[in-house]
Amino acid sequence: MEESEATTKKPRSRQCCICKDRRAALKRPKNLEQICRECFYDAFEEEIHKVIVQNQLFKPGERVAVGASGGKDSTVLAYVMSELNRRHQYGLELFLLSVDEGITGYRDDSLETVKRNEIQYGLPLKIVSYKDLYGWSMDEIVKAIGLKNNCTFCGVFRRQVRELIYFVFARPVVSLIPALDRGAALLKVDKLVTGHNADDIAETVLLNILRGDIARLGRCTSITTGEDGTIPRCKPFNFENLDDIDTYAYFKKLDYFSTECIYSPNAYRGFAREFIKDLERIRPRAILDIIKSGEDFRISTTTKMPEQGTCERCGYISSQKWCKACVLLEGLNRGLPKLGIGRTRGRNGQQRDAPQTNGGMKNIGSKQCGTLDF
Ligand SMILES: Nc1ncnc2c1ncn2[C@@H]1O[C@H](COP(=O)(O)OP(=O)(O)OP(=O)(O)O)[C@@H](O)[C@H]1O
């Protein structure tokens, strides 16, 4: 072979395997395809469009809030959702919704990013704060309870905030209880989308197995959850790897905030994350395979699941007399911040009898840093 031929052949092996024309700019972790930027944008956006269409996530005319933390995933989500909405004429009215947990040096900075995103993407932004809703910011809660268990408060309160999305675009939220009392009649937002990605979901499958939490294992892989009377939440990035989202944000030069929460060392989830990343290095499909395993688990019909009712105090769904948020709030307001902290689920997700507290409240199972529970 002539030398000049050999040198011209070498770069050809790094050609994009899709367009066979441009130079490959990355290797996708999930299939090891070497592709160029343009084909990557197309492939990534098309995969999300497919998830939206195949799972019928939205209907024309719906009002959809993007849970915007200012982090990479939700920033990419807001950007891609507005692009796809325009390109494929979904007919959605999109909003950004941010929850200000009141964490100085973390959320205040990330909210500044979301405020810029509001202008960059032309999406109206609504910020709701724990302080306004519950009377407590996370800074104050950490002062009262310390660093241990603070994620339980944050996860539970954030989940409850989800229900308020019904109302936040209608009027300022003054308190939790009247807001919930007004019920679905005032529904203003039809769906909430979050930036949970395939890595998050694989981690959660693994954590639910490790904790023996069958109830959550059964629902953590669903692309849409919460149709049981609560606002439906959708996860269009269910099958998108974190690395692809990172690359997309980087190539598109999106404006996001990338600091970890200062109160959330999140050690247990962190180990699961590392473990999954190690597996992915050996077997690129590992993350998608774990999700598939989670989807395919069948729960025996003889397994007793928690019965779903409503909280006597605020009306939020609860398998106990009072929902977790009301128990935690009561503890905070009575100067007993540890009330409601602790795990009381038995094996197979069955409820064990928990110690009675004043007002007939019972402990219910807690969950650290429930990113899937937003
Ligand atoms: N404070 C918040 N306000 C609004 N949405 C939030 C907030 N925190 C989390 N979410 C939503 O839940 C998803 C997963 O939460 P997670 O804790 O993994 O977010 P993050 O790592 O802070 O940011 P991101 O996922 O955007 O990179 C986010 O992608 C976002 O859609």
TrEMBL record:
GO terms for molecular function: ATP binding; nucleotidyltransferase activity; tRNA binding. It is found in: Cytoplasm. Residues 347-374 have a biased composition (Polar residues). ATP binds at residues 67-69, 73, 99, 195, 200. The keyword Cytoplasm applies. Residues 341-374 are annotated as: Disordered. Its EC number is 2.7.7.-. Plays a central role in 2-thiolation of mcm(5)S(2)U at tRNA wobble positions of tRNA(Lys), tRNA(Glu) and tRNA(Gln). Directly binds tRNAs and probably acts by catalyzing adenylation of tRNAs, an intermediate required for 2-thiolation. It is unclear whether it acts as a sulfurtransferase that transfers sulfur from thiocarboxylated URM1 onto the uridine of tRNAs at wobble position. This is Cytoplasmic tRNA 2-thiolation protein 1. It comes from Stephania japonica. The lineage of its organism: Eukaryota, Viridiplantae, Streptophyta, Embryophyta, Tracheophyta.
